[in-house]
């Protein structure tokens, strides 16, 4: 596996209240989420970038308001509401 080195000011860690290990994990997760959001990586690939099991990465997508199934949460909510309404009419 390849790696990337990111330089950042020490003050950033203080501002974020993170130690270097926490910052690395967070940065990897953010990169993975953005790659997935842009359609540049699958959930499996993005999970590897984040260093997480795929199931955990899917959970993290939800925390950031992204859907692992290719539609936005609001769209899914609307689809479910429409399906419930249609069921009631039957």
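^ Assign residues to that structure.
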């Amino acid at each position: 596996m390849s790696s990337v080195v990111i330089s950042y000011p020490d003050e950033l860690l203080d501002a974020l209240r993170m130690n270097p290990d926490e910052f690395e994990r967070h940065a990897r997760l953010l990169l993975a989420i953005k790659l997935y959001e842009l359609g540049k990586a699958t959930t499996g690939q993005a999970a590897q970038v984040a260093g997480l099991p795929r199931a955990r990465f899917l959970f993290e997508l939800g925390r950031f308001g992204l859907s692992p199934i290719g539609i936005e949460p609001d769209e899914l909510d609307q689809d479910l509401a429409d399906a419930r309404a249609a069921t009631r009419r039957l």
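The two ends are 54 Å apart (CA to CA).
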